């Protein structure tokens, strides 16, 4: 049994835009080493929850507790220090088109470290090699495929050796083969770097291939209705909305 303290604990969280409540009463735990899936149908608030977890949107109520402190109850400098140990892969990679892949990955290293330029270049090459892009340092994002852009975005997310990686719909826009290869890469990174990974997705293949823990956001009730291993939820759930989501309505 894993006795390590939770990496992230969410308690009694409400999310809203003005008076419109998106989700209420969210409480769940992300353990160290989890590949934690935030799942649910369109409009349920998956991406909004991700924004709350990474410090981009303040919750209407509740707490987001990292091991280092309560994300929304500490001062701005302390929040930045907490988030410095995280990395984010955005849905479309979010690479700067005017920069080479190596320059994209070097940017956070230049901003947050005092490493010399030669060492930064070497680290950028190492991160690209970790995601299968060795030799692509001087390519621009427009010169590579969509799957390779996602991998390069992941390399940049790993630039500062984060403890936690966040992925926003990583398989969006990818063909099935590229999506499968990205899933395998996520598993490899979790196992080799001992990272905790949080993935926002609605893709069933990815949910069952990589997820060992999850939360289901039910768009109808505007709250979470389940958490745990997605495979076990599929076998044991009596919730009609969750079963429909996990089977896509198959009989």
Automatic annotation (TrEMBL):
It comes from the Bacteria. The keyword Repeat does not apply. Keywords: ATP-binding, Nucleotide-binding. InterPro entries: AAA+_ATPase, ABC_transporter-like_ATP-bd, P-loop_NTPase. The keyword Glycoprotein does not apply. Pfam families: ABC_tran. Gene3D superfamilies: P-loop containing nucleotide triphosphate hydrolases (3.40.50.300). One of its GO terms (molecular function) is ATP hydrolysis activity. Residues 8-246 form the ABC transporter domain. This is ATP-binding cassette domain-containing protein. It comes from Desulfolutivibrio sulfodismutans.
């Amino acid at each position: 049994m894993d006795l390590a303290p939770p990496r992230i604990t969410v308690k009694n969280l409400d999310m809203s835009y003005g008076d419109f409540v998106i989700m209420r009463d969210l409480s769940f735990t992300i353990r160290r080493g989890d590949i934690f899936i935030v799942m649910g149908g369109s409009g349920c608030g998956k991406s909004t929850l991700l924004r709350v977890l990474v410090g981009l949107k303040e919750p209407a109520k509740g707490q987001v507790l990292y091991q280092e402190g309560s994300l929304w109850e500490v001062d701005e400098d302390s929040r930045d220090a907490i988030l410095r140990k995280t990395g984010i892969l955005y849905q479309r990679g979010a690479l700067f088109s005017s920069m080479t892949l190596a320059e994209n990955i070097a940017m956070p290293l230049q901003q947050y470290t005092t490493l010399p330029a030669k060492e930064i270049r070497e680290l950028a090459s190492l991160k690209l090699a970790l995601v299968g892009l060795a030799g692509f340092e001087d390519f621009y994002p427009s010169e590579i495929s969509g799957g390779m852009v996602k991998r390069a975005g992941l390399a940049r997310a790993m630039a500062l050796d984060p403890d936690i990686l966040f992925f926003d719909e990583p398989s969006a826009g990818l063909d099935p083969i590229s999506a499968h290869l990205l899933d395998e890469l996520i598993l490899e990174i979790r196992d080799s770097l001992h990272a905790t990974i949080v993935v926002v997705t609605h893709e069933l293949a990815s949910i069952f291939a990589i997820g060992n823990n999850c939360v289901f956001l039910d768009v109808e009730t505007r709250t979470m209705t389940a958490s745990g291993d997605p495979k076990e939820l599929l076998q044991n759930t009596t919730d009609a909305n969750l079963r429909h989501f996990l089977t896509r309505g198959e009989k």
